[in-house]
Amino acid sequence: MNIDHRFKGQIAIVAGGARGIGGAIASRLAAEGARVAILDINQEALRRQVEEINRQGNQAFGFDLDLTDQEALVECLQTVFNWHQRIDVLVNCVGIIGPTGMSIVDYPLDQFELVMKVNVNSAFLLTKYTIPYMQSRMYGRILHVASIGGKDGNPNMVGYAASKSGLIGLIKGVGKEFAQSGITINGLAPAVIVTEMNKDTAPEVLNYMKDKIPMKRLGTVEEAAAISCWIVSQEASFNTGFVFDLSGGRAVY
Ligand SMILES: NC(=O)c1ccc[n+]([C@@H]2O[C@H](COP(=O)([O-])OP(=O)(O)OC[C@H]3O[C@@H](n4cnc5c(N)ncnc54)[C@H](O)[C@@H]3O)[C@@H](O)[C@H]2O)c1
Predict the structure, then answer these.
(1) Which residues are paired to 35 by β-bridges?
(2) d(CA 161, CA 97)
(3) What is the pLDDT of residues 159-173, one digit of tens each?
(4) Is 160 a catalytic residue?
(5) Structure confidence at residue 2 as a pLDDT band (50, 70, 90)
(6) Fewer Cβ within 10 Å of end Cβ, the chain: N or C?
(7) What backbone torsions phi and psi does residue 239 show, to the nearest 5 degrees?
(8) Residue 251 lies in a domain
(9) Where are the alpha helices (DSSP H) in the chain?
(10) Overall number of domains in the chain
(11) pLDDT per residue over 101-117, tens digit each?
(12) What is the rounded CA–CA span in Å between residue 164 and residue 170?
């Protein structure tokens, strides 16, 4: 298989792909031949990301929407499917971190609910409404970006840890549910990757997490894109309901 053309002719959706990990995945999918629909709430970053991919001679289209908005999402997926009557790949990178460096005893309920809504509800809606399109061709690859925080439970960020554990449960359950359908549903659990998301994370929290990584460095978005693109390629055909590690040796399970 020619790695430059793994996604030639395919339609890929990258939710939360305007920047960061999702931006790198969208760029790589497009560079490997996919026509990429990027769904994101950050209009300015979305515009820049789409322009950059198209400037490189590859194909991306932006959809400015809040992924927790069911009606807007349903309409957007229908539009994307109508292009070529197919959706081959869904990568979900939508996420917010919420309060960090804060004990659960100080953590406000409205912040907890917001983190759960963005990180879990959007994954639920994306999966629920994309699968029927994939079923129509008996093929699909779904990848949700979870977090090491959902496996290990980082302290003092209870909303984030709880939401990513919830996402991991969704991946495992729905992966089994569709195991015989030609559609795979997997997850990725990165340790800290350098992106804008963690630029406001309390330094003591970042140091705590970096110190737990045996490689003693943070990951890059290119490293995240490399493993993600394999997981959503045709080659990854005997993996479903699994959460892949990307943690510089932190997680050995
Ligand atoms: N950066 C890390 O260290 C790290 C580690 C583990 C897991 N992750 C996860 O990886 C994913 C991507 O993280 P990132 O670091 O690239 O962050 P990021 O903030 O750069 O990217 C997240 C994207 O999601 C979009 N988004 C947020 N809420 C949205 C909504 N309601 N509707 C539509 N789009 C929305 C943002 O606009 C942004 O473009 C997240 O799920 C994050 O939890 C990140």
Answers:
(1) 11, 59
(2) 9
(3) 999 999 999 999 999
(4) yes
(5) low
(6) C
(7) -130, 120
(8) no
(9) 20-31, 43-55, 70-84, 109-116, 122-135, 148-152, 158-177, 203-211, 221-231
(10) 1
(11) 999 999 999 999 999 99
(12) 10
Tens of pLDDT, residue by residue over 15-28, are 999 999 999 999 99
The active-site residue out of 107, 160, 208, 253 is 160
> What is the pLDDT at residue 209?
82
Q: Is the pLDDT of residue 8 over 70?
A: yes
CB proximity list for 132: less than 8 A, separation 6 or greater: none
Closest ligand 1 atom number to CA of residue 188: 7
Residue 253 Cα, ligand 1 centroid: separation in angstroms? 24
CATH classification at residue 202: 3.40.50.720
Residue 253 lies in a domain: no
Distance CA 1, CA 234 (A): 10
| Domain ranges, residue 108 | 3-246
Residue 22 within a domain: yes
Above 80 in pLDDT, residue 46? yes
**150 pocket-lining for ligand 1 (C-beta < 6 Å):** no
Structural domain contains residue 51: yes
User: Which residue owns the Cα nearest ligand 1 atom 7?
Assistant: 147
